[in-house]
TrEMBL record, chains A, B:
Taxonomic classification: Bacteria, Bacillati, Cyanobacteriota, Cyanophyceae, Oscillatoriophycideae
Positions with a binding annotation for Mg(2+) 5: D226
Homology family: Belongs to the thiamine-monophosphate kinase family.
Annotated positions binding ATP: Y108, G125, D126, R151, S225
Keyword Ribosomal protein: no
Source organism of this protein record: Rippkaea orientalis (strain PCC 8801 / RF-1)
Protein known as: Thiamine-monophosphate kinase
EC number(s) per entry: 2.7.4.16
Gene Ontology MF terms in the entry: ATP binding; magnesium ion binding; thiamine-phosphate kinase activity
Binding positions (Mg(2+) 1): T48, D49, D126
Residues binding Mg(2+) 4, per UniProt: D32, T47, D78
Residues that bind Mg(2+) 3: D32, D78, D223
Keywords from the named record: ATP-binding, Kinase, Magnesium, Metal-binding, Nucleotide-binding, Thiamine biosynthesis, Transferase
Length: 344, 344
């Protein structure tokens, strides 16, 4: 049989493991677990994510290399969200025997392409049979104890910084699902949106700038993987505070504004999810320095308040004041097709 | 609606997370990842396992508490196999919305029941929608560098120790699938086999005895989760050595010998899998002391040899010599129903 058409069942678990070992450092293969060193001064941070075929990805919008890249990016983003630098990931893979071996290799290639940008090895995993392709990633990182970024420590009067634009991932998804929507866009604009969806960048690059600017000041925050609105609400809920967000300060990618109306773009910016930016709360003076340093759409979008409500304001008076609630964020047990219609 | 009949879809991701938080230590909930301390002198060991409905468990033989117990036990056994003590696990759960909330809570109860025996917390996880129930566990442990048990360091002349009986888990599974097979067994014998299948004990208890007995001598080994035969073959392959195993020295549980013929019991002992004992290679004098200390079926089953073949011998001359190959072990992409027939 041609190697091109081999399925996982054709080569079996051992055959597949052998092929995937080329993606892992040699010295850690072959035992029941991986062995990692943790810098004695640092805390270990662990985060885990499960991605399911037909729920988090589909053949229509997500080739296997993209599934891999996004899975790696989502987990590295969770580490960045806590201020941690990655030291390794494990991959648990459940899949039907009829999946082509090439699909699995391309998935691993996608994982590795993303991980290599951040010097992070795949340190182990598990492969098993399942009717549904499921990719479970657990990522490990380390952080100095005083640098841990928590959701629960946001303080009234602090600025809310976002590290980049929002809504692009949701726009890219829409374009993949309905390519004709992009007929009036340039190829560059189309590619920019699709790239934002398929190859998101975990914002580990923000951390060295952040530490340099804030010194020993504690920073609160999380990532915006479930939506910018959701992140602000979660931070406020965990910190027992509220927030005032200025609509016009939310950076939206130009390519998204070329695709849809400003109002639709803002909705996707707030609730689209999977932009993998950081949402950080820190004193205004430090926030301003950080935003200038980062550029590329980084901005102060509002302020933490004492009153425990999250309010979307419009300083131009064009829109009425609006209150955000958690139910507008992404909920895994609702249908994916419902998500964008919550606030239409 | 009565709480008894609530499904996961009824209460949503946030509702389910809230219920499951009672199983996790309070101080680590609510962030993108868990924060753990690693003793500076120790190495971090990470292991991961994916369990799939219909492949690793089924409603017929595995109530949710058992799925949870076995998932925790399998991962703690992987840590024990490397000489590591557990410090925490993460749980990635993918499941259909129609699964009863009670099923998920009972799964977590089963996980926790096993974990509590070893002071190990659930430190985080992920929940998402999927057509197939999938439980992905990643476990973390620590080990002093000189105590790491590897598959690749077995030495010719060393004894092969198993820490307990084999075949009981396979016998228990058979009894659950075909209860009438046990009609001639006492209730105690039936319960013993089913308990062996449903609530296996990871052999973390072996480690303190092992360290006391071996001092600084390196120990090779792994666990027998994929079968005792498979473990010996894997160790030999990774170490570039062979082994001679004496059939009569493989301890089989009395309840299994009451259920099936001695020959069938031995086949299940060698290839049944999921007994979660340790298979350790160490000098004969230390091996004898360890076996005496452990009791309960622990035994020296053979010797590591220079010639790279694994041979099953019979010192009574009753059976002809037999060579083991890896293909007789558990392969996830073959049908489960085929497994026990490989050598029938």
């Amino acid at each position: 049989m041609s190697e091109l058409y081999q399925t996982v069942r054709d080569i079996g678990e051992q055959g597949l493991l052998k092929k995937l070992q080329s993606f892992c450092p040699r010295d850690i293969i072959g035992d029941d677990g991986a062995i990692l060193s943790v810098d004695p001064a640092q805390k270990l941070v662990v985060t885990t994510d499960v991605l399911v075929d037909g729920v988090h990805f589909s053949d229509r919008t997500t080739p296997p290399a993209t599934v891999g890249w996004r899975a790696a990016a989502a987990n590295l983003s969770d580490l960045a969200a806590m201020g941690a630098n990655p030291i390794g990931i494990t991959v648990g893979l459940a899949l039907p025997g009829e999946v082509p071996v090439n699909w699995v290799e391309t998935l691993y290639q996608g994982l590795n392409d993303c991980l290599q940008c951040y010097d992070t090895p795949i340190v182990g995993g598990d492969i098993c049979r399942s009717p549904t392709i499921t990719v479970s990633i657990t990522a490990f990182g380390t952080v100095l104890p005083h640098r841990i970024i928590r959701r629960s420590s946001a303080q009234p009067g602090h600025a809310i910084v976002v590290t980049g634009t929002h809504g692009g991932s949701r726009g890219g998804l829409e374009l993949l699902l309905n390519p004709q929507l992009g007929d009036h866009l340039t190829i560059t604009e189309q590619q920019a949106l699709i790239e934002t969806h398929q190859r998101p960048q975990p914002r580990l690059d923000v951390l060295p700038h952040l530490w340099e600017i804030v010194g020993t000041t504690e920073v609160a925050g999380m990532d915006s993987s479930d939506g910018l609105g959701d992140a602000v609400v979660q931070i406020c809920r965990m910190s027992g505070v509220g927030a005032k967000i200025e609509r016009s300060q939310i950076s939206l990618p130009p390519s998204l504004l070329a695709l849809v109306s400003p109002e639709q773009a803002l909705q996707w910016g707030l609730y689209g999810g999977e932009d993998f930016e950081l949402v950080l709360c820190l004193p205004f003076d430090l926030a301003k320095t950080l935003v200038e340093r980062l550029g590329n759409g980084a901005n102060i979008i509002g302020e933490i308040t004492t009153e425990p409500r999250v309010i979307l304001i419009d300083s131009n008076g064009k829109y009425s004041q609006q209150e955000l609630s958690l139910t507008q964020g992404f909920q895994h047990f609702t249908s994916v097709s419902d998500i964008s219609h919550d606030l239409d």
